[in-house]
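Thread: Newbie trying to understand structure tokens

Hi all, I'm a second-year student working on a class project, and my supervisor (Dr. K.) asked me to get a predicted structure for one chain before our next meeting. I've only ever worked with sequences, so writing a 3D structure as a token string is new to me. If someone could post the tokens and maybe explain what I'm looking at, I'd be very grateful. Here's the chain:
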Amino acid sequence: MSGHQDGRLRTRWRRATRLLAAAAAMSIGGAMLTVALTTGTAGASPAPQRAALAAPAVTSVTAGGAHTCAVVADGGLWCWGSNYSGQLGDGTTTNRSTPARVGTATWLGVDAGSGHTCGVQTDGTLWCWGSNYRGQLGDGTTTSRSTPVRVGTATTWARVSAGPAHTCAVRTDGTLWCWGFNRTSQLGVGVSPYVATTPLQVGTATSWASVTTGFAHTCGVRTDGTLWCWGYSSDGQLGLGTLGSQTTPAQVGTANTWTGVTAGYAHTCGVRSGTLWCWGENGYGQLGVSSSFQTTPVQVDATTIWSRVGASGDTSCAVRTDGSLWCWGKNTTGQVGDGTTTHRFTPTRVGTATVWTGAFDVTDHNCEVRTDGSLWCWGDNSGGQLGDGTTTQRSTPAQVTLLG
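---
Reply by user tm_fold:
Sure, no problem. This is what the structure looks like when written as tokens:
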């Protein structure tokens, strides 16, 4: 950790982490679904007999603070893990170490924050559930919800990103909206309000393509390929070359070839024309380079074959165009997936498989989808977030097969 790090932010984050761990120790609820698990290295193939079970193919997955959710090919949503604030959406606050279906609605995609979850349904409506102490559910209250609650009346939501205590989403008209905690101007609407319990439009631009939420900062890519960040830059995570706050979106450099960006706790990574760049805090090697914090983007190795990057907490992962998966940074719970708990300062390959899709998410645990629709998870399992029926930590990918 850098010496200039805002101690209050770090203390709040670590306190929240301890609360998550305590909540994860709650009793594990009964399974609503059979889960078949195959452990081993990421290069291993699923046992032949499992193919005959015709499990639904997973199309996307998201990893929260200590819970996981996945959308399958028919649009069904399944969640599991820690549930102390109702973030699984099953109407309870009971932890689940195996996946449970969330209602009967069909979903385009979901994103999990530390203690809440939000998703867009196939009809373009937006729904959130779980912790709401900072208004991050966007329903006009600060009341936590154990089942999905609709956000406003719009039917034009395209994608959503849930941070620890704030949420942002893009509509089909290219407008950007944020709500929740705004202590560090992470909503991009200025220094006030301190908390927004309903979505606020960020500026007037109608060209937003994607958005990503970190602990105290937010970044987004516009349709012209430019990258913009705002919020708090304790370690340079905004990429603007300075430390301090940015109350509204500011462009990162002049490049217009960004294809994706992801925000971790206090670092950020993005892909630009096949090259990989990271900036911000680097105490665990989460930037993929051996250096101190960086206030502007620094290139991670010299290759030009990166297709997608994901980051959260203090760990980063990326997929190359050949389908190989690489992770680096904090590895306390085995979330790098290399069979160790050693922090990595350069990208480390996860197994030998070349069938990773880039549909993945990483926090203190990591989940990724392969080209055959199979789901694999590893890392912290204190709340049952690996979905294997246990709370045993795993340092290499293990397959989770959902059986209806």
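A couple of things are worth pointing out once you decode it. Residues 324 and 342 are 20 Å apart (CA to CA). Residues 7-24 form the longest helix (18 residues). Feel free to ask follow-ups in this thread.
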